[in-house]
From TrEMBL:
InterPro entries: Allene_oxi_cyc_Dirigent, Dirigent. Belongs to the plant dirigent protein family. This is Dirigent protein. GO terms for biological process: phenylpropanoid biosynthetic process. Its main location: secreted. One of its GO terms (cellular component) is apoplast. The keyword Metal-binding does not apply. It is found in: Secreted, Extracellular space, Apoplast. Keywords: Apoplast, Secreted, Signal.
Length: 171
């Protein structure tokens, strides 16, 4: 126990000790907030209908605006759009993605989630949620995208997104 105290609270001046106490209190608060925060789980389908044959050629950059739908069927309810950029960065065909999920459905209308990360092909893709707006303001979390349909003309991924939004009172 004495070693832990020396590592985290080495003997120093009173001001430094106060700073460490404040820092420890902030870290404790953030840990408790994470443990008590309400998690939101979203499930939807990312439909890519204008697949480009050379989209995974090393160095290719694509700007996209694709559908987020409630179901696997391409005529299922539109709940939002995926807008962003992807670039083929790996010689193995993996992509670097920078997406905003723009929600158009009644519950989250106008809210967004920002997702960034590497997307290896033909496998479940895990990427971090790095923020959001509206109902998802200051969110953090992760997304899992599982390929469901992979063809030369159509791609569909099932997405499970887990976010911890900051609960704010309406202004």
């Amino acid at each position: 126990m004495e070693l832990i105290n020396l590592i985290f609270f080495p003997p120093t001046s009173m001001a430094s000790s106060l700073s460490q106490t404040v820092l420890f209190s902030i870290l404790l608060f953030l840990s408790l907030h994470q443990a008590c925060a309400k998690r939101t789980h979203l499930n939807f389908y990312f439909h890519v209908t204008d697949v480009q044959a050379n989209a995974t050629d090393y160095g290719t950059i694509i700007v996209m605006d694709q559908a987020l739908r409630e179901g696997l069927d391409e005529n299922s309810t539109l709940i939002g759009r995926v807008q962003g950029i992807q670039a083929a960065v790996g010689k193995d065909g993996s992509l670097e993605t920078m997406f905003n999920f723009l929600f158009l459905n009644k519950q989250y209308n106008g809210s967004t989630l920002a997702i960034y990360g590497r997307a290896p092909l033909e496998t479940t893709i895990e990427r971090p949620v790095i923020g959001g707006t509206g109902k998802f303001r200051l969110s953090h979390g992760y997304s899992l995208a599982k390929p469901v349909i992979l063809s030369a003309t159509r791609l569909v991924y099932e997405l499970d997104v887990y976010v911890w939004p900051l609960e704010l009172k309406d202004d």
